[in-house]
Amino acid sequence: MTDTLKAEIDTSRLPPRIKRAEASAYLKQRHGLERTPGTLAKLACLGGGPAFRKVGARCVLYDIEELDRWATEIIGTPRRSTSEATAQT
Prior knowledge:
Number of helices: 3
Helix content: 25-40%
Strand order of the largest sheet: 1-3-2
Distance between the termini: 36 Å
Shape: globular
Strand content: 5-15%
Radius of gyration: 15 Å
Structural class: alpha+beta
């Protein structure tokens, strides 16, 4: 294993909900998805991002399970060829 590969994240040590900056880091480390906190904020306004909870006027929290579900949806299924049809849902 190389230094660039991260160890598996122990989700039992994470709180059930995390802030946007933490969600950005989690997505990168756990799923390899690079989404900045700014991109997550934009997706929260325009749609297409992971579901979130609004706490007060400014605080946004993401459920770990929802981040995992969304990342899996974004990543899609493995393919053996670029000519394979894209799955439509």
